[in-house]
Queue: 4 jobs
Job 1
Amino acid sequence: MPDKTIMTEGHTLWEIYAIRYGNNPRRTRGENFILEKRPADPMPMDFYCWVLKAQGKLIVVDTGMDPEKASRHGHDILCTPVEAWKALEIDPASVDTVILTHAHYDHLGHLDALENAHFLMQAEEMSYVTGPWMQRPWFRRAYEPDELARLVHLLHAGRLTLHGRDHEIADGVSVHWVGGHCAGQEVVRVKTARGWVVLASDALHYYEEYERGIPFSVAFNLSDMIAGHERIRELADSDDHVLPAHDPRIVQIYPAASEPLKEKVLRVDLPPAAGGNTG
Ligand SMILES: [Zn+2]
């Protein structure tokens, strides 16, 4: 199946809601970075998924983490994506389009709540998670077999599209393969009123990777991971238009979607506070 090439500039302007559904205040620098000089120093991790909204259209990007998996992997849930969707007046059963940026357990929980949705993911990610690399514990460490089986069921039910590397989802929304963190890692490029924003998902966990040009600890291919930073720079209007999936700095610099959703749901289509990403 040929890919839809990204030829058109997006005219639809999207709002982006970043859902901070979990965190891990116990995490250390040594768990995040290879050859880290201060491995015992604290480096808390937040967990995000996103919702894109425009003119009555809605796209869900990643679906958070199953609470049982969160506790098994030592992470805390702050509010489930299902709770956040409902707070944003989104009925999960009405969602029709879901982008899965990759298949790690912290990006595809709650799939059953999206009973009428169609899912999209990189074809390379599906080959990877069902192929020979999974014979090795290092590569399968962030995957959960029951969730991968759910993807197989969705595929056979005609509810999962496995697309090529660059793929247009809607006017002003496209996904782009970068690999690195896992074989099928992608980033999401979204046209907003302030320009092109890139949801880097796990192509960046923290801004520090991007600033220092260093890899995150969980990796399939380090050269693709570092090259991915350059791809993100090409796709985003500026470094202030780039959103990692796990950085606690995000909640400090972006406005809340509303007062009751403070520190849980942020508007990242709006500009960050003065000073931007600079930590
Ligand atoms: Zn992640």
Note: The CA atoms of residues 2 and 114 lie 28 Å apart.
Job 2
Amino acid sequence: MSDICKNWTQWLQKTRFAHMNEEQIQQTFRWLFAIRDVVISKADIKKADKIIDIGCGSGLLGFGVIEKFKDDVEIIFSDKFEDCLEECKKLLGKCDVKYKASFLQSDCLDIKLPDCSVDKAMTRSVLVHIVDKQKAINEICRILKKGGIYSAFEPIIKSNTRYHELTNPDEITDWQTFKEAEDEFMSDMNDPLVNFDAQSIANNLDLAGFSDGDVDVCDTPSTYIATKNSIKQWFMSAPSPDRPTSKERFLKYFDEEKVNNYIEEMQNALHNKMITVNSKTVFIRATK
Ligand SMILES: C[S@@+](CC[C@H](N)C(=O)[O-])C[C@H]1O[C@@H](n2cnc3c(N)ncnc32)[C@H](O)[C@@H]1O
């Protein structure tokens, strides 16, 4: 694992943007802020609410709440990893006003809060990193008060456009076997990134005891001109600090020479071509 990918803070600040130019980074931030606003709005926050941002990272949701509701509400920044909470503390220290904020280092599979103790719980791209999503959603339900709301956003990575869909079998050596490998690792039930979809999340909400779990599916097509470099980054970017890159995933099936050749042929087939890739995501809203 490269140095850049040592922990979540570094991943959030650097690794996830490594393959992007400045314009793409700004576009990503606009997209993240738009998501943040929807998650916060669906949480239906009221004065004096106690709200938890679970897997807060650098506090996208928590600081969004502070920006909108100032000290009318109480916010708990919670993450499994200390570096994330340190980052949020640092950012909060830069604010002039004193807010009702606290920090909780806790695994979302075992949240260190009593039953029925918060009004609202929010996550963004956290469940996607948890193998046992049912257990995490049970915990979220447990800590919510009766009538409390869970609002979240998650990417459904298993439904994203796959590499092989962008090329034809006659452009790529062993296209079919690479397709089969990709299909297999994109449906690995032990891989948190791909072991779920909108329906399984809806089932998780029901089983946890939420009364009106709603999972709103969005398709976001993105059309752009691929370059050799952008294609290389698809294979080299780590999806999180602790998960393998796509290249590493293919290396479980083929030797390095074959994988390098596959990447090179993909680069040659797609360089300077206009491509459209689709990302599927969900907004989750559920009341206890
Ligand atoms: C993709 S980041 C999202 C961060 C933040 N929610 C945001 O919207 O920018 C995933 C976050 O989940 C946290 N995380 C991963 N596993 C966790 C776990 N088991 N319990 C709690 N947080 C976890 C990571 O530390 C990281 O901050």
Note: The radius of gyration is 20 Å.
Job 3
Amino acid sequence: MSQVAPLPFYTRARQAMADQNLQTALDRATGRMVVARKQAIGLIADGEAARDHARQIRAHTIANLDRYLDEFVANATALGVHVHFAADAEAATRLVVDIARANDVTRVVKGKSMVSEEIELNHALEAAGMRVVETDLGEYVIQLDHDVPSHIIAPIIHKTKEQVAETFRRELHATEAEVAGIPEMTAFARRMLRAEFLAADMGISGVNFAVADSGSLCLVENEGNGRLSTTVPRLHVALMGIERVVPTAADLAVSLRVLARSGTGQALTVYTNVITGPRRADDPDGPSALHVVLVDNGRSNMLRTELEEILYCIRCGACLNVCPVYQEIGGHAYGSVYPGPVGAVYTPGAFGMGPWADLPQASSLCGACKDACPVRIDIPRMLLALRARAEEGGHTPRWVGDGLHVFRLLATRPRLFRWASAVARRLSRWFGPNGFDRLPGPLAGWTRHRHFPAMAAETFTARRRRQAETRGQS
Ligand code: SF4
């Protein structure tokens, strides 16, 4: 995955905070989604129990992933599905290009697929001479703008409707009437895309869940483009992360109950597609051939590690919407296909620290992500584990590591801690009786946006002792 922007994370974050269009778009969208999620989860009587059940299914599946993948492959193959395994992005793109070439494909339509973004599939297909058209409305706008998604379920959350109208005018010569409002723009895109579906040789989709005991694929969506991409062209290729398997249809039902509610606040998405094999004598609908590409691409690096829990993720996007950091900087600042709290764990976990070492720092550890997550993934715990990895791997500035060592030295020696805090208190009140508007050196980042208050005249321990004594006397 090479979607990292050339600038350091902190520079990208500062730029995002200064971008007024982005701030308007984020305020409108995340606020709306947070309210919708709360209402939708609140509407099911056993909402908390459903989350516990969904988590238990994910935990059990990931703990037995090899078994359920084998079962899925056997059942899907028996239905006539061609199942392939790709160890990394390069193998996955090569497989899809080879399938397309072997079937004389020249035109491709794509439903929304985060895995295809992750492996940069469009570039590979276009380099092989194929025309690729994104058919999810948000992804279509992204493609027209040569942009990248900034949210895992709302790819153009960073754009206002005015910006989308401008894209349609510029790239598709839309008239003013065709971009007069959101319904008009949606109808316009629909007309443009309908012709693409009818002309395509191959449809590509993601997979929300694969059911092990039936070999079925489940795709959820709201626009119908997923259904058209997977049924109209003669060939369907589904890209699936290896973790997206569930044992049974009953487990799928539980997962679907919490997915849409957490993502968009809907009880269920408008389209829930369950695809069980390609067209055959006893089932004449759909494409004549169906290929499933199981993509690892770093996922198995996290199995049996302290990051395994991130593989429980069902990609609902709720943790992004509630995250106070994501709400301010949006998705592009993360530089990764997977932004927000889930991405801050998933990206360095799957692809290594490399350029992603700053991402686990992009959190206040407030825990809002864990509270919102339908499968209760403990993201803050894993962010801390990754911060430790970054420090051990020499990915954090030297002063941070040295500072933490000094803090540990003091914090594990109560007498020394009391003495050092008394000295620090005196010095702070001497040099800055009213606090500091500007701190020196690496601490300057703190005062760039806020005041650093003076230390209290009396320590917490001293105050407690004094209050206890006062109570004892009365
Ligand atoms: S980590 Fe949880 S809240 Fe975030 S996208 Fe995944 S399932 Fe949704």
Note: The chain has a mean pLDDT of 93.
Job 4
Amino acid sequence: MAKELKSPEGYARYAASYDQGEKYWDSFEQRNLNPYIAEAKGKKVLDAGAGTGRIAIRLQDAGAQVTALDLSPEMLARLKRKKHAVEAVLGDIEAMPFDDDSFDMVFSSLAMVHLKHVDRFLEECYRVLKDGGKAVVVNVHYRKPKILTDKSGKYTIACYNHFPRHVVEAAEKLAFSIEKEIMVYEESTIWISQILVLKK
Ligand SMILES: C[S@@+](CC[C@H](N)C(=O)[O-])C[C@H]1O[C@@H](n2cnc3c(N)ncnc32)[C@H](O)[C@@H]1O
């Protein structure tokens, strides 16, 4: 029986092998982030829940000035080892340690699924974005918790699926405008991710 862990404990254990699943993580986006990563060139960008830097490093390589925020020191330690110029900041995406109007763009992939509610996170994205700035968020749909194994045994990391409609409504309540909504499907019927581009 796999034990369910909260994110900090779960990612402390998962950090060492997280990067081995890169292709699996990419499959939730299916390259739909590429135009927005290109758009980030020359911009001040936050990657919220950046983990080991899968997206942060792509943003950096595209010419953005990137800050990576995550609550897992172990995940950020992996990012730092990659010797990129991404600034790593330890902190909570529901209480971001940044001033209002700090960033031109906020990216967040595969992190919102670990939050019980999306409202506080979206509010923080809105607050730290400059007027006219964009948030690009990936809301993934896990049908079953991913069972992970290490030398201490089997475990899962707590996840909360968020209905796409609820995320859109929460964003609109904050006065974000929905620039784009992309739904990614598996076997053409089941949604596996919702990619939202939100404009402040
Ligand atoms: C599945 S990983 C995604 C990492 C990276 N964004 C990617 O796409 O590969 C989820 C990350 O969200 C982080 N996370 C979860 N809840 C968080 C919170 N409240 N504040 C900051 N980071 C959080 C975890 O520590 C973990 O690194």
Note: The radius of gyration is 16 Å.
